[in-house]
Amino acid sequence: MQTYQLHSESIPEKFIQMNGKSYVWLGGTNYLGIGSHPVFQEKLQEGIALFSQNWGSSRINNLQFSVWEELENQLAKRFGTEAAALCSSGFAAGQIALQWAQKSHQTQRVHVAPKTHPALWRYPNEPFPGSFSAWNANIQPHEILAMDGTGSPWVQKIDFSFAEKLGSTNTLIVDESHRLGVQEIMINTKALVLQTASLSKAYGIPAGIILGDTWVINEIKADASWVGSSPPNPAFCFACLHAKEAYDEREGHLRDLIQYFETKTQMAKLPVEKIQGYPSFCSSDSRLFEHLKSRGMLVNHFSYPDVTAPPICRGSLHASLQVEDVDRLIEALLSFTSHEN
Q: Cα separation of 22 and 289, whole Å?
């Protein structure tokens, strides 16, 4: 089986149905499973009561909702940056940040790292065709650098030590959609840093964010690309703003599950690629998908972003799981290794 497609009537938490059978769901990017947390549900209901519909308007419309600025301030503080700009999606956040950088530095080359998400490309500036080390070796002063904070769907740790050598004439834009709320995102560099992310993954709301210095965020909020973009749904922003204890609880539980998995497998040879402290794992071996399925677990298996490429088997621990589910996954991975040997 090369790929599969399911149509569901609800967002899966711990379980998902396929062909009349129930499987532990290890797919997707709903890392914190925040939607099932009672506090988040309560705050979302309150938000819907206050903001009964999505609100489409100019970002500088005469009517503003304080929830947007309050959430921006909270997220900027949470992730250690001076300021933030909410956007309608992570893709919009990436494109708006890139637009600002190109307009502000019109003579500078945009140097896109390999396997960067399309949110940070704009033709003719597409990902470098070689290796990350070759891209790194080709970095020049006075240029805009665009990259992902971690590899996805192929799980790959990005070595940010190169950023320590960048100068103040470089602009570094990093898509943090798969690290935000899951891993530390601080980057040590003299370069000007903008970090963008989808909040629909770990944070579970239909929005995006740009994190950066106050003066940069102020300029972005004066640019037509942000002014003309749609604001995020205010009801979900209200839930995110007021459900901090739910996020803290789920983040802590996920960290505990990851640490448990890594402690239990530190001496084992696993048939997957995984990086320390990160919930996801991947494999190019299509047989692993069927093996996990036979053990009652369902992971993703599809081609992305190139739909003609071989499918990638990718799964994640998420905060809806318990220790016994992690034990079950470990046993399944080890049994596949044993079978293959």
A: 16
Residue 286: its pLDDT value, please?
86
Partnered with residue 173 across adjacent β-strands are 146, 194
Contacts for 131 with CB less than 8 Å, ≥ 6 apart? 114
CATH of domain 39-242: 3.40.640.10
Q: Tell me the C-alpha distance between 163 and 295, whole Å.
A: 43
* Alpha carbon separation from 84 to 101, 166, 212 (Å, rounded): 16, 23, 6
Q: Kindly report the number of other CB atoms within 10 A of residue 251's CB atom.
A: 17
Q: Read out DSSP for 23-84?
A: EEE--SS-TT-GGG-HHHHHHHHHHHHHS-S-----TT-S---HHHHHHHHHHHHHTT-SEE
- Our CA angle for 275, 155, 189, nearest 5°, is 70
User: What sign results for the dihedral spanned by CA atoms 213, 218, 222, 225?
Assistant: positive
CA 277 – CA 255 distance, rounded (Å): 7
Tokens for 339, please give them.
Answer: 């079978």
Class of domain 15-35+246-340: alpha beta
Which residue is associated with the tokens 């190109």? 102
Of 44, 80, 86, 46, the C-alpha closest to 64 is: 86
Give the span between the Cα atoms of 48 and 235, in whole angstroms: 5
- 14 three-state secondary structure: coil
Q: Write out residues in the chain with pLDDT < 70, as ranges.
A: 1-2, 338-341
What distance in Å separates the CA atoms of residue 301 and residue 202, rounded to the nearest whole number? 20
8 A C-beta contact, residue 126 and residue 112: yes
Identical fold, 15-35+246-340 and 39-242: no
Contact indicator for 248, 283 with CB cutoff of 8 Å: no
Q: What is the pLDDT of residue 199?
A: 98
Q: Which amino acid is at 301?
A: H
pTM (2 d.p.): 0.94
- Element (H or E) spanning 183, and its range? none
The domain segmentation of the chain, as residue ranges, is 15-35+246-340, 39-242
